[in-house]
Amino acid sequence: MIPSSTYRLQLGPDMTFEHVAEIADYLAALGVGAVYTSPVLAATPGSTHGYDVVDPTTASPVLGGEDARMRLVGELQELELGLVIDIVPNHMGIADPPANPWWWDVLANGRSSKYARYFDIDWDTGPVLVPVLGSDSVDDLSVEDGELRYHDHRFPIAPGTEGGTPQEVHERQHYRLVNWRRGNSELNYRRFFDITTLAAVRVEDPEVFEATHATVLRWISNLEVTGLRIDHPDGLANPGEYLRRLRAAAPSAWIVAEKILGPDEKLPSSWPVHGTTGYDALRLVCGVFVDPAGEQGFTELAGDQDLHAMEADRKRWAAEHLLRAEVRRIARLGVPEEAVLAFLPRFPVYRSYLADGVTENLPSGGIGERMMADPGGELTSRVEQTAAMVMAKGVEDTTFYRYNRFVALNEVGSDPGRFGVPVAEFHAKVAEAAETSMTTLSTHDTKRSEDVRARLAVLSELPGEFAGLVHRWTAKAGLSEPTLNLLAWQTIVGAWPISAERLQGYLEKASREAKIATSWTDRNEEFDAEVAAWPARVIAELGAEIEEFVSRVRGPGWSNSLGQKLVQLTMPGVPDVYQGTELWDYSLVDPDNRRPVDFGSRRDILAGIESAATPPPIDESGAAKLHVVSKALRLRWERPELFTGYAPVTATGGAAEHVIGFSRNGLVTLATRLPVGLGRSGGWRDTAVALDGPWTDVLTDRSYSGDVQVADVFFQYPVALLVRSGE
């Protein structure tokens, strides 16, 4: 069942099944087609996100358990809303071993455990390494209640191995507790990226697939779940095979894969999914509102940064340091370790898919030749899996915090070296897009929200002025590390007004992910203290100047926000609205973007819009954005026949380049792009669009026909959603 749209909710203790049921009527009134949630299965105790599932057979007790889940299902069905859930086939949470019965059994029984093959463990290397110790010492171990303990960590004791000192008991187990620093280089189980508390699962084994998916598949067969978002398929040994098995087991479900495509990459045609989770659309929509003329100014501001050299260097570093354990596992298949280290960073995208016949992204060389000779072999799958990890850690999680020329472009699936998206490329790519694929502008994984990026896009029209401010502000209160300094100024302008606490949390994460002056594992206390003190200092010393500048870019930023939102909601695809973003939202990377959402105020604003005689003004309240979102979503729900086909709409006249538009089946979307340049050039003047017959703008209820002046169409909003009258 393909939904008309989705609304993403981050579940947790503050957003349980019961809470979702309570806001379901608001989401239905907004026009949403399906509620789309983060994982709903039992997760590690204390989890704030649910991606660390410990029991795939049980609805999360923290979210309310099975009874609350069924009450939510009933409420959604009453409102005719679908339910799309996020599932995590790649890994399970093992941070709290007693909470994960499969992992506990593996630790207790080793290779003889019935679950030994469920996890991707290299048993030939000896006991399972568990990197939890603070040092190389095991002096702090104890035995209590028949378990081995290390502070708050609990581990099983195999039958018959009791007796003696805790250290002696430890030596008899099927696992070894080791210094946490040994994980990246010596771990003998596959994990999610470099996170040792997320152990990879072998879903390529039919028995493991059945065990991990039976509950979710039952929900689908009972029509309690209508769609699935597949987390990180690139981590799987053979994503295509997995997705074909999933499709066979859930033929009616809407399935989208969180596949991060390069700007010129396509989804493998053999994957039986409806599309991606929308990063490809995000790149296009956000990019078309960026002024390419601003590139030179921002390049000069950032200094001499070679993006592709930086990516290659950071990928090599990730392979050598963060993922050395995975590299060594590949080497045990008969490939020199140094050859593996040299080969992995050469993948131009996340990975290849040789088992699916997709070979164009495979680097040349001896390892590639061996992989081509055995597309379904272990060497191929391990290299491909690890290549995805190298790309994610080297580029998305490191380079994107270092290459800070223009951070609005630093999102997964984007190439920050391409300064925006030309209008012609936008239309060509969108015309080819699948109607069933998800589109998005904000997710729980984006580096910054859609409205932050929309405001930053304004800066692309003001490169000289912004550079001057950065130089002046840096002289007064700059950070000592240049790349973080440039990131910080863009961030504070893009997210203003922002509290010192939120900015401090963001800069701590950004500085440690960049790994230049400090990192998560090797702290620089002096620099960390500088970063921690910076937000409060800057807000106190420069807050008035920042506010003055932001007051001048805020309006154009709102124009970009409304433009990119309407484009995303009406272009081909199934649009997703990330929680809370129906109003202005200036969130940064997680956990900032997972803060609780005030649904009460949104419900009130929607009711106010519906009862008002005129559309809401564009102001701080964000009501105008909610108005645009609700009108577009309701139109998708009520009149799906309008959302087929695609053709560019071009304007004529002096400001034609400032219109981005397209027509569908009885629907036309128009939006303003590059609003600062538009104002500088004298406004819309004689710019016009040709409409065939009578049309009504559903945002303002005004009617138009024939050759229409763009200034008339955009008299109230910088966007228009036109529907052919009489249809």
Automatic annotation (TrEMBL):
Residues of the Glycosyl hydrolase family 13 catalytic domain: 3-613
Top-level division of the source organism's lineage: Bacteria
Any matching Pfam family: Alpha-amylase
Protein name as annotated: Malto-oligosyltrehalose synthase
Species, as recorded: Kibdelosporangium persicum
